[in-house]
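Pilot study result, target chain (119 residues):
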Amino acid sequence: MEARLHEDDSARPTPPGTLVPVYTIHGTKKLLDRVKHPVMPAVEDPTTALGNWYATAIFWRPQVAFLVNEATLFPVLLPLAPAASIAARFPDALESILKAVSTTTKVSACSTTTGRIEV
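Predicted structure:
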C-alpha cells in the first residue's frame, strides 16, 4: 500500500478561487509515522514539471527529510522538524537548492521519458 503526504497548499488557482494541486509527495511509512498528519489523495496527473516526489526520513543528526523527484531524480534534503510542515516547507527548500546550483526556478519543458528538464 502506498502512503502519501498532502499536496501543495499553494497550488495555482484555476478557475479563480479554486486551488489545484500540482504535485504529490509519496512518503515512506517511516516518514509518515513522524508526520502524524492526515494523508490526502495523490495528484493523478501532476500539472507541472514538479511532478511526483518520493520522501523518507533519515535519522542523522540533525534528522532530515530526503525527497527525490520521480522524473529527474533531483534530490532535496530539508530539516525533518517540524515533520508536520514538510509539504509546506518543501517549495521554499526546492527553490533555494535550485538557486544554489545556479539554475532558474522557471522550468520551460520537462520530459518524463528522458528525465530532462529544460530551463
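One observation from the pilot: Residues 24-118 form one domain. A full batch analysis is planned for the follow-on phase.
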